[in-house]
Each structure stands twice: as structure tokens, then as C-alpha cells.
Amino acid sequence: xxxxxxxxxxxxxxxxxxxxxxxxxxxxxxxxxxxxxxxxxxxxxxxxxxxxxxxxxxxxxxxxxxxxxxxxxxxxxxxxxxxxxxxxxxxxxxxxxxxxxxxxxxxxxxxxxxxxxxxxxxxxxxxxxxxxxxxxxxxxxxxxxxxxxxxxxxxxxxxxxxxxxxxxxxxxxxxxxxxxxxxxxxxxxxxxxxxxxxxxxxxxxxxxxxxxxxxxxxxxxxxxxxxxxxxxxxxxxxxxxxxxxxxxxxxxxxxx
Length: 256
Ligand SMILES: C[S@@+](CC[C@H](N)C(=O)[O-])C[C@H]1O[C@@H](n2cnc3c(N)ncnc32)[C@H](O)[C@@H]1O
Description:
Blueprint: H1 7-23, H2 34-41, H3 45-48, H4 53-57, E1 76-80, H5 86-95, E2 100-105, H6 108-121, E3 126-130, E4 143-149, H7 158-168, E5 169-182, H8 188-191, H9 194-198, E6 205-206, H10 207-216, E7 219-226, H11 235-244, E8 246-255
Parallel strand pairs: 1-2, 1-4, 2-3, 4-5, 5-6
Antiparallel strand pairs: 5-8, 7-8
Helix pairs in contact: 1-6, 7-10
Bound molecules: S-adenosylmethionine (SAM).
Residues 14, 18, 59-61, 81-83, 86-87, 105-107, 110, 132-134, 149-151, 154-155 line the site of S-adenosylmethionine.
């Protein structure tokens, strides 16, 4: 029988990992997290000071891409796979009250945490919705900017993610994302293993294939850059980094 990825198992595994990220950020993970990681990736510390600290402690992104988007007061931003909300609160510092930020995530515990932090902070221009990044619950041409940090590698339908991001963006709208990709194509034994997907390795797409998908969805790719500051910490992940060139990349693109 040909190897295939069990998508239901993948969703269960991913939700299990990110439930723990929300509830026990001090636990052991195969990736770095929290404020030290955010600063290392390039988030300005003075702006992180203005984001709820408990959102920063559960930050599990892989890059800093806000300089790839022209974020202005009044913009409407969508963050795909918003986790505990750090990037959404960060974006809201730039959109101001005249704009808005919507975070979307499928994991209940992440949503519970981000929503309670939003309520505590009284951040009325920030909201968190439950849903899948492959099937966005928003109308066409709703947003100015779509962001995502460390999420799209976890999706088994990356083409749908980019098509949906394109659909909900206004014409000329921007995509600014960071993700885990690979230099080479990985064997089926890795790309069909749900455990390795949940560890952000199995779903790491080859870099050119990934940017081709972004373009096929209707974007012009403007910048692709590596984030060498991002390092995996588990042995399994480090092995894949060496063997297949698994790494963090940021991409800036514009809807044509
Ligand atoms: C690596 S974490 C990153 C969270 C956040 N972006 C951050 O930087 O901290 C991945 C997040 O994506 C969510 N996620 C993964 N696959 C998803 C999907 N298909 N639809 C919606 N959310 C998804 C997970 O629940 C988790 O919160």
C-alpha cells in the first residue's frame, strides 16, 4: 500500500502540541519559544513590552516578517494560525484603533488564551475566530494584509491556504509570512509521517515549490529570505535540518 499522510491523525497531533504550547509554555518542546525567541528573530523589544506578556510566553513563530508588509493605521489584518495571539497584538500596535486584527486558529486552548488576553487588555480592535486556514470564514476582499508565522507547513493543503489568503485580500493586498521549508525534496517516509509533520518537519515544502504555489494562487512574490537565527532544538529536527536543509524562511508577496 502506498504511503499516505493520515490527515485526521495530523490534526489531532497538531492540536495536542499547541494545546500544550498554550497551557504549559515552560514545558519541553522541539522548538524554541517565548520572548527570547521573539527578540532573536528581530521583534523590537520596546514593542514587545506593549504586548500581553502571556501571549509572548507562548509565541511559537519562526521568523519576523512585519518589515515585509507596509502596515498602516487603519489597515485590516488577518493572522493565519494565530496561536496565543502575540503577532495579532503586535500588528494591532500598528493598525491602531481605526484598523483591526483578526486571528484565526483551530485549537480551542489557543483561542481560549488569546481571547482572554484580548479581554484583559481591552483590545477592542483585536478578535480571534475559530476555523481552518484552508477554508477561511471571511468574505472576498476583506483584508489589507495577511500574516502567518510557523503555521502553513502544518497544512496538508497548502495550495488551498494560499488561494484562500488571496481571495480574502483586497487587490494590491500584502502577504507577509514566515514558515519552515526545505532545500531538497524529502522522502515519503518523512512526508507521510504525521508525528514529523506536527514537529514542523514532515510538512516543510521545497522552497521553489512553495513560492510557485504562492504565485499560482495569484500573488507576485517580492522577497524571499532566510532566518538563520531560527534553530530547532530536538535531535530529530536537527538531523532533518542537516540532511534536507529544513529551515525558516520569510516571504513577502502582493495580490495582483
Ligand atoms: C507553530 S504554532 C504558531 C502560532 C503563532 N503563529 C505563533 O507565532 O506563536 C501553529 C498554530 O497554527 C494552528 N494551526 C495549525 N494548523 C492549522 C489549520 N489547518 N487551521 C487553523 N489553525 C491551524 C495551531 O493550532 C497553532 O496554534
